[in-house]
C-alpha cells in the first residue's frame, strides 16, 4: 500500500471525505479505488500514521487559465484562503516552473480507517 503524506494537519483531514492536489507520479500514478496509508510528515522521525483512505475520484487539473484550471472554491475546500493562496504555497513548495508547467491530480479520498 502506498503512502500519501501531508506536511501539516489540515482541518480537511478530519472530514469523512477530503481533497488533495498531487503532481502525477513518475512510477505509477494514483488510481481510483486505490487504498493509501495517510501520514503526517512521513519522512520525519516524528511521523504520524493518520489511517487508511481510498481514492474515490481523480481529475486532471491545470494551474493556468483554461477550462480545466483549479478554481477558488476547490482551493478553499483544499484548505487555502483562495486560489492565489494555494498557488503561492505550491510555488514556495515545488518551484514556479513545476507549478506553471505541470498538470495536477485532484484526488478525493474517503477514510476507511481514520486514527484520531
Describe the structure in your own words.
The chain is 21% helix and 36% strand. It has helices spanning 72-77, 83-94, 96-101; strands at residues 2-6, 17-22, 35-40, 48-61, 104-114. The protein has a five-stranded mixed sheet with strand order 1-3-4-5-2, with no helix packed on it. Strand 3 and strand 4 form a beta hairpin. The longest helix has 12 residues, at 83-94. The radius of gyration is 14 Å and the shape is globular.
- Element pattern in H and E: EEEEHHHE
Number of domains: 1
Cα-to-Cα separation, first versus last residue: 20 Å
Mean pLDDT: 88
Biggest sheet details: 5 strands, mixed
User: Beta-strand level of the residues, as a percent range?
Assistant: 35-45%
SS-based class: alpha+beta
In the predicted model, the low-confidence regions spanning at least 5 consecutive residues are: none
For the biggest β-sheet, the strand order reads 1-3-4-5-2
- Percent of residues in helices comes to 10-25%
Shape by Cα distribution: globular
Short description:
The protein is α+β, with helices and mostly antiparallel strands.
Amino acid at each position: 500500500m502506498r503512502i500519501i503524506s501531508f506536511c501539516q494537519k489540515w482541518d480537511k483531514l478530519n472530514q469523512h471525505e477530503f481533497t488533495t492536489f498531487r503532481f502525477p507520479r513518475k512510477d505509477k500514478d494514483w488510481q481510483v479505488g486505490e487504498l493509501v496509508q495517510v501520514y503526517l510528515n512521513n519522512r520525519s522521525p516524528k511521523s504520524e500514521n493518520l489511517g487508511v483512505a481510498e481514492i474515490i475520484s481523480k481529475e486532471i487539473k491545470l494551474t493556468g487559465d483554461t477550462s480545466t484550471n483549479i478554481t477558488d472554491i476547490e482551493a478553499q475546500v483544499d484548505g487555502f484562503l483562495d486560489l492565489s493562496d494555494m498557488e503561492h504555497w505550491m510555488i514556495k513548495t515545488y518551484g514556479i516552473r513545476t507549478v506553471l508547467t505541470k498538470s495536477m491530480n485532484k484526488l478525493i479520498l474517503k477514510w476507511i480507517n481514520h486514527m484520531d
